[in-house]
Amino acid sequence: MLPGLKVGDEADLVWRVGAEHAIHLGYPPPSLTPTAVWAPSNTSVSAVVFSTPSMILLMERAARKAIEPYLEAGEASVGANVRIEHLAPTPLGAEVCAVARVTAIDGRTIDFEVTAHDRHEAIGRGTHRRAVVKLEKVARRIDEKTKLGLGPVGPLPGQPGIVSLAHEQSVHHSSVGGVSGPAAETAGPLPLPNTTTIRVEVDGAIATVRLDRPQKKNAVNVRMTEDWEAINRYLAGHPEIRVVIVSGGGDDFCAGDDVPEVGTLSMVEAQELSYRQARLYLSWEQLPQIFIAAIAGAALGGGCVAACACDFRIASHDARFGMPEVLLGWPPGYGIAQLTALVGKSRAMELCVTGQPIPARQAAEWGLVHRLVPTRELLPAARKWAESLLALPATALTETKRLVHADEGLQPKVAFFADTAAYVRCLELPDAREGIEGFKSKRSGSQRSR
């Protein structure tokens, strides 16, 4: 370590709170447990805020910044101790600043006083210790551990047994994405739920899930959201079901959210419903089943997101895909990251900013659809595809799915925090009210749904 660092030296670092830095307080709300049903009269209130681990990381990064000019080649600073108080919440989108001030230096160990604040107040304070280490030594120890094996963690000698991460994930498989934790812990598998807006048929290892609001183009309302959450809990408890085919009753797959119902919700209710819908679609990535979307007619807004959330998509030649929310006066409340992952930023921008749908053939060219078939062959072709997947090794298939989704990283899984915040802000504006009224009176034929 080079000389020159002294007590009183400071460094600061500023972040803008993004979805990847946030935690959703109040989730899962009581509505996601088997004993409670969400309704506008008993909606839970939640908040998306800067998380404590992220604040600590920002503080550590500020301290590391203070040390960096004094490191020699082959050296790095690592955290050795942290004692932090989190004093106040900070919302998504706000800037936060961490300041690290050197309070003591003992050879290669440096102590810091660390603070954090947003534009309004102090949000954190504490102390932090960093040690300067040789990278060669760290790399050697990591290599030793890797060679010893990376299996499930067990108890250390002389310590009580602990639950391994693998077991914890299997029990709390649903902690993100609309599958409630309590259901996953229920003794014995759940029975097939009694749903009113979705029909489920289980035939061996294949479940066929059909949206059943054909008179509303299978638009997703509060009741369908509840039904999907119940179905997700059921699937989480039935790994013997290996493939799920999702289709729409009538002529359409899903025309998105039920816009007239959106117009009756308070901003808190709309926000919570958007969070729930985002999580229930994201949960399909975590469930062990392979999801195949069989798409005919409209797949718009939330319906397009549902299709994107499936692992595979097969469509009839008459299918059309779009994100028409902007035509109603608001941005998509969720699903932008999943759409962008499939078609790329430029094409996602075209779909979301123009609000105009694309036909099935173009969707296939863009990578949004895997296969196109005549309408009469849609469900038989989806079934044949499902049966071909059953011929593959079950564990290898599930693990491959998990790895592909995990490779995207965390940000796409939490981007809906920012999406929903923007959606709710716009939903309060006159343009949105006008859009909803226009939809209800059918003044604009292109405004089909959110």
Describe this structure in words.
With 450 residues, the chain is an alpha/beta fold. It has helices spanning 52-67, 135-148, 165-171, 181-184, 222-236, 259-262, 267-286, 302-309, 325-328, 336-343, 345-354, 360-366, 378-390, 394-406, 411-414, 416-427, 430-441, and strands at 10-16, 22-25, 47-50, 75-86, 95-106, 109-117, 122-134, 198-203, 206-211, 243-248, 290-295, 298-300, 312-316, 320-322, 358-359, 371-373. It has 2 domains: 10-151, Thiol Ester Dehydrase, Chain A; 174-441, 2-enoyl-CoA Hydratase, Chain A, domain 1, CATH 3.90.226.10. α5 packs parallel to α7 (267-286) and α8 (302-309) crosses α10. The longest helix has 20 residues, at 267-286. The termini are far apart. Residues 29-43, 162-177, 180-187 and 443-450 have low confidence and may be disordered.
Task: Detail the topology: elements first, then pairings.
Blueprint (H helix, E strand, L loop, with lengths): L9 E7 L5 E4 L21 E4 L1 H16 L7 E12 L8 E12 L2 E9 L4 E13 H14 L16 H7 L9 H4 L13 E6 L2 E6 L10 H15 L6 E6 L10 H4 L4 H20 L3 E6 L2 E3 L1 H8 L2 E5 L3 E3 L2 H4 L7 H8 L1 H10 L3 E2 H7 L4 E3 L4 H13 L3 H13 L4 H4 L1 H12 L2 H12 L9
Parallel strand pairs: 9-10, 10-11, 11-13, 12-14, 13-16
Antiparallel strand pairs: 1-5, 2-3, 4-7, 5-6, 6-7, 8-9, 14-15
